[in-house]
Write a structure and sequence with these properties.
α5 packs across α10. The protein starts with 9 loop residues before the first helix and ends in a 13-residue tail after the last strand. It folds into two domains: 170 residues, Rossmann fold (3-Layer(aba) Sandwich), CATH 3.40.50; 100 residues, no CATH class. It is of the alpha/beta class and 354 residues long. The chain is elongated. The strands form two sheets. The protein has a six-stranded mixed β-sheet with strand order 3-2-1-4-6-5, sandwiched between helices. It is 47% helix and 13% strand.
Length: 354
Amino acid sequence: MAAKNSAPSNSELRARFALAMTGAVWPAAVGVSGGSDSLALMLLLADWAKAQGLAPPLVFCVDHGLRAEAKAEGKKVMAWARAAGLRGTVLRDDTALPTSDNLEAAARALRYRLMGEAMRKKKLAALYVAHSEDDQAETFLLRLGRGSGVDGLSGMRALAPFPDPNFPELRLARPLLSFSRAVLREYLAGINHPWIDDPMNADPRFARVRVRQAWPQLAALGLTPARLVEACSHLARARQSLEIAAEAVVARACRPYAGGVLIDPVALGQAPAELALRALAGILMLVSSNPYRPRFDRLRSLFAAIAAGGLGGGRTLHGCRIAPAPKPARLFGPVTLLISLENRQKRAKPPTNS
């Protein structure tokens, strides 16, 4: 649902939020930085859970140790949570983060590790985060700049695997993807609720900040956040269709095996390249238990070698080993390949043919 041009009333906003929460995974936590988006999410989730008769969400605020003000801001977030009838905790790890270009990625990894550990202890099922329509549009542009394909350009999903593969039982939920940041701030202003403006959100060292600074020029070309999110939606539908078609390739070219997955390289090579690449990526993700796809250039190189019969003694990718299958497992003849964990101490779950 696209965001409305005029500001919705609080009742309309809550109704839209309730619709976005259809099929919600619960019990849950909510990540709150103190910024406008995450505070709006915290309050909307609290109201929604109360209306549904569910346990309230647990509030997590992560102190990355990057700013002296973070400790006081964490206390402020906890005070706002208590005022909303919620319990929460500030999470911190004293591990020093890099000061290089990897800062964003390192902070993100730390954030999800700490929240994942806390969720597992509390036996929670999902983490709700405040990615908005603006974040979705920014993600589209950043991925476009990296040359992403259909999957990357289809944007963030409303319900996705947890970003840290060490917590495969958890889910990440994004119910605000159709809400603009302006609408969320109007909601907070309407109930006289303050928020914290993080100065790092204006630091041009970060690519996402540079995209935000370019919005006026982009909007003049018709590239508004709402229009880019609409493009994401189109690509998401295409992605869904491709995933269904790729499942047919998996069913035809793959079979479960005690050590991983057996591959028919002939059947895989005869499939349309996009479907074959998607099927191969899915198998690697399954065997490795990694929720993220392998890098495309390496995936494409592996597929080319498989299709050309040039795999030789084998290769490794995404924590997996791709090699000729042992004689007892050559279900597809002498060309049969086996994809198994590179670390033999772990065993992969066999795939299904559905």
